[in-house]
Specification:
mainly beta, four-stranded antiparallel beta sheet, 1 helix
Amino acid sequence: VQLVESGGGLVQPGGSLRLSCAASGFTFSSYAMNWYRQAPGKGREWVEGMTADNGRTSDLESVKVRYTASRDTAKNTLYLQINNLKPEDTATYYCKAVGRRDYYWGQGTQVTVSS
């Protein structure tokens, strides 16, 4: 099983990024897929997710309007579009696959928002 995040980097405030999470080794369409982030010195927090049947779920009110998760089952890939990036979005972003009996984490991709 592999989850490989990509798309992070250094971006100026107000910019946009699209993160990707490429999945392999399991039946992608049967798993809920989630994005988490972990800012320096803080715990990991759930940001947004996609259910196995492509329902979208969000937790943080402050990011709902700027974060959009999506999934492409044909490519076994989860995405996270982040618009109007703010310095407080600086964090390592992780994807997590959740099945009925198991779950998997990716290694993370760093997003740094700074001028």
